[in-house]
Amino acid sequence: MLLFLSFFLSFSLFASEAIFDKKCLSCHTKMLSKSETLKNIKKLKAPPMLEVANRVKNAIKVTNNDEDLHKFVVVSFIKNYVKYPDIMSGFCTPMAYEKFDVMPSLKDKISEQDLDSVANWIYDFYEGKEFK
Length: 132
Description:
Number of domains: 1
Number of helices: 6
Structural class: mainly alpha
Order of helices and strands: HHHHHH
Helix content: 55-70%
Number of strands: 0
Distance between the termini: 40 Å
Largest sheet: none
Strand content: under 5%
């Protein structure tokens, strides 16, 4: 049973990353350092997802540092923002909005199940990774 659960979780993470690759990677790089971002800024279509994930996770605070609640709120924010992006609710720097503008809505381009999967993957994949 434990082996099955381990396989299922591995497959689930792989499937979630595949959704990211299909729906997000055309604009957001997965892993790019700050110095590499600055070197390639003219070629980028959107901020690196590492920076986006860090900004969102650091900006959203919950009471009592409850990790489960924090993940729930961050994942909920990501899912809502992907469908209804808005400069007033985003956490990008003014320079990022100048360069990239607000992302286009993916409301009709990603299923709720895929969006939930990729939002959870973003939270987990970037845990402990810093944009530096």
